[in-house]
Amino acid sequence: MSRVTDQQVSKLRKYMAILHCAEAAADKANMHRNTARKYLNTALFPSDMKQPRTWKTREDPFEADWPAIAARLAIAPGFEARFLFEKLLLARPGVYDESQLRTFQRKVKVWRFHHGPDKEVYFRQEHRPGEALQTDFTWATELLVTIEGEAFPHMLCHVMLPYSNWDWLTVSQSESMLALRRGVPAALVELGAVPEYHQTDNCSAATHVVCSEEEADEDAAGKPAGRYTRDFNLEYLELLRHYGMKPRTIGIGKSEQNGDVEASNGALKQRLEQHLLMRGHRDFASVAAWETWAQEVCRATNKRRLNAPKELAVMKPLRVEAFLEFNEIDAKVTSESILVVKRNTYSVPPRLVGARVKVRCFEMRLEVWHAQKLILILPRLLGKNGHLINYRHVIGALLKKTGAFARWHYRECLFPGQVWHQALEELQKALGERKGEVAYLRLLHLASTTLEADVEAALTLLLENGQAPTPDLVKELMGLTEPIEVPDLAPMTVVLSDFDMLTPGMLAEAV
């Protein structure tokens, strides 16, 4: 039988005052009439009448060994209950068993509440409208977004106002300064106003290690602290100065101080997930299409933020031109038709060999400019010592110097897929190593001038049939070969009298 609650008793007394009948009031409060009479005869509630239990329902199985365990916890409170229990099982075999783990964990938990060290206390802060813009990066891979059918692992640069929860996002591939240079201005442009502060965590894009506090403390007191400090990067300060904001960061290792945007990351991705489910599929034609779609989701939500107008009223209007979201680098195209940008290697069309170009480094792409004209757009590589070689850039030169193929440093980049490796092997078996390589280069040239997918489909079909995929067979499958038409010519008739027109002078001149 369930216990009577304070709410039931309140309901009982309410209906008793209306109906003046104990049985009717008890029925309305879903209570037995005898129980109802007990509470109608007193002003107390069930919670007031409950007596604390002073006895144990069963004996403490750890009573004999607990003093030693408590003494150990007092010396080192960091011990985990599971670890101590495992040690207890080894020390007292046959006395305890695994089924008592939960009981032991509860006992350790109670000890920590009564005798353990003080825990960190968090103080909820009141946000002032329009004071700070918070920025954080979060991985969006879990959304399973694809671009033209290909998986797209990426991050979101998430910007928000903690007072109203107004937020904005941009797509990025790393937690970099270039991502901040794009994400923060994009949010300010959408907002149309500028807060007093911009707050972020101690990411390397905004801050850097200045020195070790350990070194500073050794000079002052001779006692190393073993900690470090961070300061703002000059490029980050330049960005904030351009928009008239002050930098603000959180304590080292104190991610909760950036808690509003940190907590909002999950809510943002959940909101996007729901809209993706409603959309019916997760594939987009381009990165820009995915970003625009996600920003529309944010824009629709921001319209319902009730406190957003209040924040806008106290912020400064945005009246500066946009901060450049790229770095510009001078570089020279090498004789290998290669461009090295930030220790990563990119191929370019051979017509640019020897040219000095300007490379604009964006978060997601590189733009190659020459003579103030955009020549080429390349996807940007992350990290160092990577390479992005497009066989379409070099295949023409390789056909002129076919001997360079065998030992070229970037040879593996000339295989768009596994079927191309198989094609080269079969061509070398059928035609010999040298001629097989030439035939393979001709296939690559065919792919660069037509459709790679069509060439690959023809290669797959020929290999499945056990045939060497020569360029002629591939062209035939692709319908690129045209039958040679022999013209129907009438037999020539020689008329000797025509030679009488030649005078002796003309004959001599012809000789």
Computed Rg: 39 Å
Major sheet strand order: 5-4-1-7-10
Helical fraction: 40-55%
Helix and strand content put the structural class at: alpha+beta
CATH C-level name of the largest domain: Alpha Beta
Look at the structure and give the mean pLDDT: 87
- The CATH architecture assignment of the largest domain turns out to be 2-Layer Sandwich
> Number of helical segments?
19
> What is the CATH topology assignment of the largest domain?
Nucleotidyltransferase, domain 5
Could you give a short account of the major beta sheet? 5 strands, mixed
- Shape verdict: elongated
Task: Characterize the structure shown.
It contains 19 helices and 19 strands. With 511 residues, it is α+β, with helices and mostly antiparallel strands. It folds into five domains: 6-49; 66-115, no CATH class; 132-317, Nucleotidyltransferase, domain 5 (2-Layer Sandwich); 327-387, no CATH class; 392-477, no CATH class. The strands form six sheets. The protein has a five-stranded mixed beta sheet with strand order 5-4-1-7-10, with helices on both faces. A hairpin with a 4-residue loop joins strand 4 (155-161) and strand 5. 21% of the residues are buried.
Task: List key phrases describing it.
Nucleotidyltransferase, domain 5, five-stranded mixed sheet, 511 residues, alpha+beta, elongated, four-stranded antiparallel sheet, 5 domains
